[in-house]
Amino acid sequence: MPLPPIESPVLLQSIAISLGLGLLVGLQREWEHNPVAGIRTFALASLFGALSGVMAQVHGGWVIAAALVAFSAMIVPGYIASLRQIESDPGLTTEIAMLITFSTGVIAVMGYSIVAIVVAASVMVLLQSKKSLHQLVHAIGENDLREIARLVLIGLVILPVLPNKSYGYEGVLNPFAIWLMVVLIVGISLAAYLASKFLGNARGIAIAGILGGLISSTATTASISRRSKEPSAHALPLAVIALISSAVVFVRVIAEVMLVGPKVIPQMLPPLLAVMAVAGLIAAVTHRFAMKSVGAKTEESPPSELKSAVVFGLLYVLVLLAVSYARKHFGDAGLYTVGAISGLTDMDAITLSTASLANKDQIDPSTAWRVILTGGMANLVFKSGLVLAMGSRAFIRPVLIGFAITFAACLGVTLLWP
Questions:
Q1: What is the torsional sign of CA 256, 260, 263, 268?
Q2: Which of 45, 166, 202, 220 supports an S-S bond with 212, CB 3.0-4.6 Å?
Q3: What is the pTM of this model?
Q4: CA-CA distances (angstroms) from residue 384 to 156, 343, 376?
């Protein structure tokens, strides 16, 4: 970018921005009583960077390199002095922040003011968030960190190298798209688990139900059903957890349709929203009756294991192939059979696959959401079996009533919706 005239308002404005950013970051360091640098030092550092940038546009980029070396040399004595103080933190946070502030001054006068502002604001937020970030890290256990690392592996290492092309039968197999669904499900589950961990051990039945629905409504129903037979169990709050988790399934279904089927949202969302509203109303009414009851606490393990992710990927591939095969050879009736079978234990595979096919105009959107609701009805039937087999008598009745009404809503919408 050519250097503006020496008295150009643009140049003066850029220098003023550099000064302001230095003051912003320095304010936080001054408030922390940092012994190395405070508000004036950071302001001067950003001005030094700005002037270096101005000179570099006349004499070349070596000026910035030389200024950075000189600036770093000035920081070293301050860091060494801080090390000699017994009670001081020998970390490099302030020193790195000073180098970044110098750099923001440079790029501000070189035409990247917005970038400089974003970087400086981010630095201030990071510096001010020291205590909360440390608490967050200390709250994460070894198992949690391992699962986060696995999510990083499948999402940031494996996913980018997979080919984003269609292969196989009917061209429905896209390695990148398939693995993206794996990352999506694992990410949702891990986020729900970490939210549960940091919010407390399911402090309210509403939170427990929502998080259970995000992680797995089927697993939640099985767990809650077993717990309902414990002598100290409160049946109605546990029933609310099961009903809320089942209602959240339809929220998750809608979110997945919106993610993978943006073209068919107007056709697919209204009937799904209608069913979600019925399920949510049932859960809300039951929750109101259970407000005075004591909620149950739940303990969850990190859900996002690499083995489970791979199993889901294989399931998704099988469902995708089955849906395409059924569509080609059996018409819509075959799709409903696949939806019912795949929806017994999990709604994600049938939702993602049918929504993806509808988005590609390979199946009609009205057929796609009906297949999804067929899977939802099958899932309700399967969970009802779990409740009957594992739940207490006081727990079975409210849950089965809620499931029956939701099932009727799914069936009515499937048959009667235009």
A1: negative
A2: 220
A3: 0.56
A4: 38, 14, 12
